[in-house]
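ok so for the tutorial part 2 we go from a plain amino acid sequence to predicted structure tokens. step 1 is just haveing the sequence, like this:
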Amino acid sequence: MRQEKVFAIRFSSLYPMYVRKVESKHRTRDELDRVIRWLTGYGPEALEGRIASDNDLETFFAEAPAFNPNAALIKGVVCGIRVEDIEHPLMQKIRYLDKLVDELAKGKAIEKILRS
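step 2 — the prediction. this is what the tokens look like for a chain of 116 residues:
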């Protein structure tokens, strides 16, 4: 899929897929929301607003109040590509989120996911 198509995906359509993924592995939506808020800086109400909106991923990340500086500590492979090697800043942010969701679904402790 071309980057432009990925950037145009609505966050509101992606979010339910994340919820299904983590819940199928016995994790909770609250844990998912905590991970997303940690990465982006959105508060609970602001995140709910983004979930209800038609904003695409580009807008979702562009309007993130405080992208976590510790996101650079996120390492690993998503879709066969090392997230730390992705050059396009927006694509890297998207893959950081994907990696955090994967870690949550795989049962990793929240403290480790949040790089605390």
